[in-house]
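Two quick folds needed for the group meeting slides. Do the first one here.
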Amino acid sequence: MKLTQQDMARLLKVTPMTLRNWRRDKPFLYEILQKGFAFDEIVEAQKESYEKALELQEKFKTNR
């Protein structure tokens, strides 16, 4: 799930205005934050895929 700027601000315990200021005044910092959140999304998606694969594996084990 893609996070909104408000979601990111809440997680970072800053205001959305602070994020907008960082985006304008500290683009490298803002880019690092964006990449960090993107990484978290990828990890979560992979975790879900892994769990689904385990479920399928168990399903096919019991059908033998």
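Then this one, please, same format:
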Amino acid sequence: MSSGLPLGVPKRQPETEHFWNATAQGRLLLPRCDDCDSVFWYPRGICPFCSSLRLSWVEASGRGRIYSWTWNTRGEGDFSGVGPYAIGYVELEEGPRLMTNFIDVEPSQLAVDLPVTVVFEDTGEGSSLLRFRPA
């Protein structure tokens, strides 16, 4: 699957290695605190809610709703000259919100609370980027 959007290869850190390996398998993993049970985004080595270092990974459903969005007509850097594209935040069923691109959707279809589902776009470098499309 190719959205036509740039595919920057993510920089791997020890805290994100499990996440990126899972994306290459078409799985969305989220970090969860073993002490306060919070699920959060972005992967890091410490819970942002209680500062615990006891973390594990849970498989997410890949479903969520658009929290906010914009239709961008002028990109910079890798997105320069790409043309109009949609970017915004998805609130996952598990709670965290993450920034992403929306694909396979016209501007008139985008709306807050629109149900969406994850799509994994292979970078060709052992990871996939998350994109979302209407469910």
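Slide caption for protein two: DSSP finds one helix and seven strands in the chain.
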